[in-house]
Amino acid sequence: MIRHPGRDRYDAVIIGSGIGALTAAAYLARSKARVLVLEANSRFGGASETMEFAQGFRAPLLSHVAYALDWRAVRELRLAEHGLAFAQPNMKMVALRPGGKHIVLPEKSFRRRTSFAAQAGQEGLGYVAFHEEAVRFARLLRPLWDGTLADPRPENRDETLTTLIRRLRLTPADAERLESLSRLSAAAFADRWLENDALTAALSFDVFPSGLSPQEPGSALVLIWRYAQESCGRQGAVSQILGGFTALAAALEAAARKAGAELRSSARVSSIIVEKRRAIGVTLADGEMIPAKAVLSSLDARKTLLDLVPVGSVGFGTAASMPEPERIGTVQIMLALTGPPPIAGLGAGDLGGRVVIAGRPETASEAKGAALNGRMPEEFAIEATVPTAADAALAPAGCHVLSALLPYMPIVVAEGWDACRAILRKRVLATLESFAPGLKDRLVADCMVVPGDGKHDMADFRSSFWHMLASYEARIRTPIAGLYLCGRTSEPVNAVCGRAGRIAAGLVFMGSSHQTGSP
Amino acid sequence: MKAVTSPTPFHARTAEHNPANAWLPHGAFTIPAHYGSPDQEALAARTSVVMIDVSAQQDLHIVGQGASALLSTACGPAVRGIAVGHSEDVYWCADGGGLRGFGVLSRLADDAFLLRSADADIGWFADAAPRFGSTQVSEETAGRGLLLVTGPYAIALMIAARLEIASLEARRHAAFDWRGLPVTVFRGGRLGGYQIACAAADASLVFDRLYGAGHLVSLRLAGESALQLLYLEAGMPIPHLDFTPAREPFARAPSPLALGFSHPQDAGAGNGGAVLAGLELDSDEPLPFAPVISGSGEVGRTLRSLYSPSLKSAIALAEISPKCASPGTTLTVRQVDATGRRDIAARVVALPFL
Questions:
Q1: What's the CA gap between B246 and B14, in Å, rounded?
Q2: Under a CB-based contact definition with an 8 Å cutoff, are residues A398 and A339 in contact?
Q3: Which of A219, A495, B219, B243 matches a 20 to 30 Å C-alpha distance to A298?
């Protein structure tokens, strides 16, 4: 066993190199801390990958749009100087409907709400009212979700809501609304203003990263969380990164390296060393021990606290209360096309939008029910993008890529994924063809990624009302002093944000201080 | 939906001696409430010997290489020091520090433990077991009968019944071949005496042998009412009667210190500002869960309260401010009911009462 000499002790060792880990590394290195990032694989960036699935055709894997990126980190780390650029700062949303009567929601929804209402009539007015309510409430809760609200440290779960209402200074009416969100589904929330099922289905579909279906209690809060996010300076916007999340990871890596962080690939951490309930370093799979004043993990909470720390270091209550790994997965189909997808009734200007196919509000819920029982859903809920519409470098000249995500899919199917793969491909293509006649004629290659393909290294988790209302500090700190979580499980919803990395770096920097912020 | 309870393995025998047909539900079992006179039964435990069916006490077997690590994580590092054949009182808390439960932990072998308690909290231990290697947690209450023999003549009853336990030291347990009947005897516990465990199929025979020898030492059967009084006199709180166990993973209440539990590792821990104390009331009428007043301010509350025939007055456990917990301190217990408010004088006494 190799032991690092004491003088080589790092200020912080970071396990993993996902977006959260690289954000934390850049912030810590920027504050002159001695930081080491340890990545088990041969490349940095974690799960973010832009995959070349056919000769000359590339597409971002799994996360093809950004809607929860930490804008403070983007600005403070000057990621633009390190190559980060946005292909689309604010994407439209298109709810596809049979017969070509699609609903196109404007990208600058707030500014254009009146004109949209005028065009879409009664339904448009309903959408405007829905949007205003969601954005207004999202603004009230933003201090909780952008990390500026200090840890309220409630005595117990029953007091979480009371403490939060007091800290956010909500009016009695808003407090009552927040309380009702714990029981309300996203579909029911949208249904208060909207009568069009297709629009309700498309809007409520946005809760899918949380693992909740739009008809589950508490999913309304996920919708509010979505509207509390900011993209390229616009609240609730969805953006497309030029080059996908790989480009974001590369920009963060460059920022971290420039600030002085060390990064090591092919360095798998086998355990976290804990002495007197304090993390004092890590041990690698080859036996090397690396001492550090603080350890940050971008792995999920279960992996970090139940597998990497010595047994018994974590209390039974903490272990029991960790979010359960999600039992549903996501399938992605990438299509290489010789031209733009010929979606009937959709103008060329709308092709760069986020296309949602979910005929009814129940579509996603029924799909989730089937997935939990290990069956293929009867009807798919699909989110599709054409990344090449704004980022031509992803395909040969004149060609296009269509990336379709199918959330609420079973992780394990009774017949086995190998047997189901061809059937699923045929069904999805048929669904897409029904909206884009002639699509198959333009298809030159395709690729399908299913759960179990080794592309989902991190266990997904299911957001809960209480997990979302906890402060960042409560999600980042662990029962072991000096050990922090900075990955996706520390975010309110399972999404690539980087915010947990920034706040974790702040907590490390400030030591025992209870304030949150950046170093 | 009404909970379903089962008779204990001794039910055939205890029913013969229960002409008042007084029964109580206790966990998954129906147990004798009393055999005619709870006060006389409690007095007999002080003057001669009583036999109580305590089969409703829950036994949790924790077996495997990680059993010691599991229990030392849950109940404190002292568990590792328990020798095979020895037992210790233990308690376990939620991560927030609230008391979840307590019991007697016996080490049966290097990697096998028996946790006997009024409420085994199996979910807490079973959920954690997979993290501790091949540790298995199982509840084995239903397959055995358990009798408590206590009182000054308890050992005499053992001798009269020819159960050779003379070599059994306090806080130890051992398996015995009792004239062909396999039994396990544990000596000690807060009430003293002996706990005799046997297979459910042997329960009637074990009962008959002890009861048959009992006429030599004035043995009396006692029920749950007398047992609860004995626990109160011993200063021992009972889960679900004196306190609600902290079953939320991060609950902070009830504090162990407020219920009479303390351990060196708790030093400096927040205790909610209360400690467990005993109160003797200037009244024959028990005053459970009533405010305790010192001067003009409230300093705590009583827990369970019963009339003690041995002390000839009502007594109560109370969680009160440490400033008022010194023996001899005079306090007031306030009774508020439909007829108005009455203040009863009370004196703090050291625990146990007897």
A1: 34
A2: yes
A3: A219
Kindly report the backbone phi and psi dihedral angles of residue B274, in degrees, each rounded to the nearest multiple of 5, phi listed first: -140, 150
Q: For residue B4, what are the contacts with CB-CB under 8 A and spacing of at least 6?
A: B28
Distance between alpha carbon A396 and the CA centroid of its chain, in Å? 29
Q: Quote the pTM value.
A: 0.81
- Inter-CA distances, A57 with A338, A392, B346, Å: 11, 10, 86
Contact A312 B73 (CB under 8 A): yes
Q: How far is CA B228 from the centre of its chain?
A: 8
Phi-psi region of A287 (alpha: psi -120 to 50; beta: other; left: phi over 0): left
Interacting residues of A152 by C-beta distance below 8 A, sequence separation 6+: A160, A163, A164, A167, A471
- Chain A: residue nearest B100 by CA? A317
Question: How many other CB atoms sit within 10 Å of the CB of residue B124?
Answer: 21
Chain B residues within 8 angstroms (CB to CB) of chain A:
66, 69-70, 72-74, 94-96, 124, 127-128, 131-133, 248-252
Neighbours of B345 (CB within 10 A): 13
In B, minimum Cα distance to A156 occurs at B251
CA distance A114 to A104: 14
Q: What are phi and psi of A62, to 5 degrees?
A: 65, -60
Q: Which pLDDT tens digit goes with each residue over A450-479?
A: 887 766 544 456 677 778 888 888 889 888
State residue B145's pLDDT score.
94
Residue A418 CB partners (closer than 8 Å, separation 6+): none
Could you read off the pLDDT of A135-192 as tens digits, one per residue?
Answer: 888 888 888 888 777 665 555 556 677 777 888 888 888 888 888 887 899 999 988 8
For CA atoms A43, A49, A53, A57, give the dihedral sign: negative
3-state secondary structure of A343: coil
User: Are A367 and A357 spatial neighbours (Cβ–Cβ below 8 Å)?
Assistant: no
Chain B closest-CA separation from residue A271 CA (Å)? 15
Nearest to A317 among B72, B132, B249 (CB): B249
CA distance readout (Å), A132 to A67, A173, B257, B307: 18, 16, 52, 66
- B66, B133, B252 ranked by CB distance to A155: nearest: B252
Do β-strands A57-60 and A240-241 pair in parallel, antiparallel, or remain unpaired? unpaired
What separation, in Å, do the N-terminal and C-terminal C-alpha atoms of chain B show? 41
Of residues A78, A16, A75, the one with CA closest to residue A48: A16
Tell me if ipTM is over 0.85: no
Contact flag A156-B72 (C-beta cutoff 8 Å): no
Judging contacts by C-beta atoms under 8 Å, the chain A residues touching residue B64 are none
For chain A, report the end-to-end CA distance as a whole number of angstroms: 35
Residues on chain A bordering chain B, Cβ-to-Cβ distance under 8 angstroms = 155-157, 306, 311-312, 315-321, 479
